[in-house]
């Protein structure tokens, strides 16, 4: 269950209460007249089964509550209530699979910020991966994948495309483009520094690397893995199953591909540089495509159950 706190202006409060009472997924509806002073309005509280939150938020936004009042949503850790159990049973689908579109849109939008912290994580991850690439160390590659923050903008790009948020799309593309460009440039300088200190050399990159040479040798499986990673990643975000996200982060080769390209550029290894950059583009495109496909399926299912959530009919997701 989730808890809604609504500040409803006087001209909308009756419509808000009717909307809440007509939705079978709501319970524990409370109205405190004239409780809010900024913005001015009545305070309306209710609990909602997660399966019905997104639909209810859409209805409240269509009323325009957000313009003169406000809407906030919090998770409920424990709720002991037969009424809450009835609301959960009446709501269509399963709470574990429910998608709160407003939640994932807000969460992913925050990941598009082109901040110094984001650029630092991108650069550090790429430098770690560069050492792993040169010395054929999969452990360092995995570590770099976990550190890399690039999945955030990729998820935001998928959400922006499905929900058609041009600003979010532009910010995501900008964050990815500048993030990878800065990370590659810094890693080139890092490579030259380590080379000057005799800590690595072009020979290290060009010798046989059976454990990591797949990074600059893209093939059909690169598309497959990236697509599946996009599915898993967006599922982990949209259904609040964040535990699966780490698995996504270590199953794609965006950061390692950027690292391989940077080292190859520093050493003039054109073939590896081109191959790694192609691998990077393939993974970025495949992850986005997988994420978009996942969100489209979820949106279709949710629309199919929208009428059921209002009338109280049962359905499955």
Question: How would you sum up this structure in a few lines?
Answer:
By secondary structure, this protein is α+β, with helices and mostly antiparallel strands. It has 14 helices and four strands. It has a four-stranded antiparallel β-sheet.
The description of the largest β-sheet is: 4 strands, antiparallel
Give the structural class: alpha+beta
**Number of DSSP helical runs:** 14
Q: Give the N-to-C terminal Cα separation.
A: 17 Å
Number of beta-strand segments: 4
Describe the structure.
The chain is built from 14 helices and four strands. With 317 residues, the protein is an alpha+beta fold. The chain has two domains: 2-91, Alpha-Beta Plaits, CATH 3.30.70; 104-302. The protein has a four-stranded antiparallel β-sheet with strand order 2-3-1-4. α8 runs antiparallel to α9. The longest helix is centred in the C-terminal third of the chain and has 42 residues, at 270-311. The chain is elongated, with a radius of gyration of 24 Å.
């Amino acid at each position: 269950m989730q808890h809604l706190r609504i500040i409803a202006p006087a001209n909308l409060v009756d419509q808000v209460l009717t909307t809440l009472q007509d939705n079978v997924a709501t319970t524990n509806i409370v109205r405190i007249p004239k409780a809010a002073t900024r913005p001015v309005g009545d305070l309306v509280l209710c609990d909602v089964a997660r399966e019905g939150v997104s639909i209810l938020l859409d209805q409240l936004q269509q009323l325009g509550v957000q313009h003169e009042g406000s809407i906030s949503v919090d998770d409920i850790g424990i709720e002991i209530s037969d009424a809450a159990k009835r609301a959960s049973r009446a709501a269509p689908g399963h709470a574990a699979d429910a998608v709160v579109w407003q939640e994932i849109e807000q969460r992913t939008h925050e990941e598009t910020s082109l901040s110094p912290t984001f650029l630092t994580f991108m650069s550090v991850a790429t430098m770690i991966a560069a050492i792993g690439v040169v010395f054929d160390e999969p452990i360092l590659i995995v570590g770099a994948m976990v550190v890399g923050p690039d999945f955030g903008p990729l998820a935001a790009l998928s959400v922006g495309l499905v929900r058609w948020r041009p600003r979010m799309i532009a910010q995501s593309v900008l964050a990815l483009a500048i993030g990878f460009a800065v990370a590659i440039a810094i890693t080139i300088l890092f490579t030259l520094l380590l080379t000057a200190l005799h800590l690595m050399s072009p020979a290290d990159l060009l010798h046989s690397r059976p454990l990591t040479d797949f990074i600059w040798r893209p093939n059909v499986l690169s598309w497959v893995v990236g697509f599946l990673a996009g599915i898993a990643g967006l599922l982990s975000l949209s259904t609040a199953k964040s535990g699966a996200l780490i698995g996504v982060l270590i199953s794609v080769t965006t950061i390692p591909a950027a690292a391989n390209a940077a080292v190859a550029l520093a050493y003039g290894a054109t073939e590896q540089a081109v191959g790694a950059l192609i691998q990077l583009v393939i993974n970025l495109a495949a992850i986005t495509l997988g994420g978009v496909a996942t969100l489209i399926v979820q949106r279709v299912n949710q629309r199919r159950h929208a009428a059921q959530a209002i009338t109280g009919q049962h359905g499955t997701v």
